[in-house]
Design a protein that fits this description.
- By secondary structure, the protein is mainly alpha-helical.
- 50% of the residues lie in helices and 5% in strands.
- It is built from seven helices and four strands.
- The strands form two sheets. A two-stranded antiparallel sheet has the order 1-2.
- The chain is flat, with a radius of gyration of 18 Å.
């Protein structure tokens, strides 16, 4: 089909195949930077649980956080390490997705803001479709379009 030719596997010597890295994958150094930024985040009491306890920098893993912590990270924290590590093509839609959720979860919101958010999430998802594989997009991401309604 000729889609994303830069990601097609390449034959090296007839018996082995090399797979290209996608633009959103992180190497070990970038993962350690990502975890270090989340580990060093200082939060006020009562905003979220101690997220630094959920980050294991040596194993480069984040686990054991609650759903409220996930919302807080999506709204505020993930924007910093994503901007530091990822390419602008990848970081832009992810940061816009976080700001979409932040705008949608405000206590007071205007009707014209909802119209803007509805149009904006369509553009964000279209940008994400150019980055992530089709298997990433399931019914949960499709529901984002209906949240503003």
């Amino acid at each position: 089909m000729g889609i994303r030719k830069n990601l097609h596997p390449r034959e090296l010597d007839g018996s082995s195949v090399q797979f290209a890295k996608s633009c959103f994958s992180m190497n070990a150094h970038e993962k350690s930077i990502f975890c270090a930024i989340l580990k060093s985040a200082k939060l006020l009491d009562g905003i979220a649980s101690n997220i630094s306890k959920c980050v294991n920098a040596s194993e480069k893993k984040i686990s054991g956080y609650k759903s409220h912590d996930a919302h807080f990270m999506l709204h505020y924290l993930l924007q910093v390490p994503i901007r530091c590590i990822m390419l602008d093509v990848v970081a832009g839609p992810l940061i816009c997705l976080g700001s979409f959720f932040l705008s949608l979860c405000q206590k007071v919101i205007k009707v014209q803001d909802l119209d803007y958010l509805e149009a904006n999430i369509i553009e964000i998802l279209c940008q994400m479709e150019t980055i992530f594989p089709p298997s990433f997009f399931d019914i949960m991401l499709h529901l984002l379009i209906h949240l503003a309604n």
